[in-house]
Design brief:
- This protein is mainly beta.
- The chain has two domains: 62 residues, no CATH class; 28 residues, no CATH class.
- 10% of the residues lie in helices and 28% in strands.
- The protein contains two helices and five strands, in the order E-E-H-E-H-E-E.
- Strands 1-2-3 form a three-stranded antiparallel beta sheet, with no helix packed on it.
- The longest helix is centred in the N-terminal third of the chain and has 5 residues.
- The protein is extended and about 45 Å long.
- It holds the Pfam family SH3_Tf2-1.
Length: 93
Amino acid sequence: MGPYRILEERGQDSFKIDLPSMLKRRGVHPVFHAKLLRIHVPNDNRLFPGRTEAQIGNPAAWGREWAIERVVGHAGCGSSSILRVLWKAGDES
């Protein structure tokens, strides 16, 4: 995700990030520990020609429903279920 602008340093190892309103509405807290942050490196068109940020991930474009090909595994039951799915796009998570 990102890149996002750092608004301020909180203590010695935490930073407040300028999150998009969509993430704020979903309750994502804007302060992150430095270990969770990475310096943004722009796309290298020689290695990845034509890659756009939308291909990498654009949370603003994510809807509440995503198309899956099939469920390939599961663990737990009820509200604590975890599913492993094969997405229509070909990714598995």
